[in-house]
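Lab notebook, bench 4. We co-purified these components, and the gel suggests they stay together. Before we commit to crystallization screens, I want a quick structural picture of the whole thing.
Request: model the full complex, all chains together.
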Amino acid sequence: EVQLVESGGGLVQPGGSLKLSCAASGFTFSGSAMHWVRQASGKGLEWVGRIRSKANSYATAYAASVKGRFTISRDDSKNTAYLQMNSLKTEDTAVYYCTSLKSSGYYFNYWGQGTLVTVSS
Amino acid sequence: DIQMTQSPSSLSASVGDRVTITCQASQDISNYLNWYQQKPGKAPKLLIYDASNLETGVPSRFSGSGSGTDFTFTISSLQPEDIATYYCQQYDNLPPTFGQGTKVEIK
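Here is the predicted assembly.
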């Protein structure tokens, strides 16, 4: 059974930092690009960024709204992806989902349950 | 960035009705168009990939069509369990972008 389990969400003050984790099982994590997508309460889905596999040099890409503040990494030995969020703003408040891109495909086939990040003083 | 314009933003239909949602891309995205279903408090779930391919395990009442800039998602016979918000999403270019969503309710 495929599972993606996010953790690390919580309440943080503006300007603070938080690191989310996404633990994967049930599929070939090391060969998959991992993405983060967020959703503010009552709003739509917004892509945050991605990290590709080792075969693709662990290349990262980010949405303009988070570039320079967020960093995505992965540890294939632990089947885990990470989202380091620095200089957090109130507008970063959202549920953060990790999702995997289908190998040789262009769609998100597996999703985690999401973890809530609240940025507030 | 490629803009995805989805319509309608919400709809109300009766059980058994045919439901259609459209999605228009701001530029040609070939068939790199996917549809997701999201129920309240849950993660999105892939239903249709590459515009018209049904994901394994998804009921056949769901279908998709289109290419280029204009796409359609159809529920052939609406069921109570289909109450959700549906999103289109393109992956022709980074960043992947989503439509604003269509909330489907039962009349």
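The mean pLDDT of chain A is 97. Worth comparing against the SEC data before the next meeting. The CA atoms of residues 17 and 86 of chain A lie 4 Å apart.
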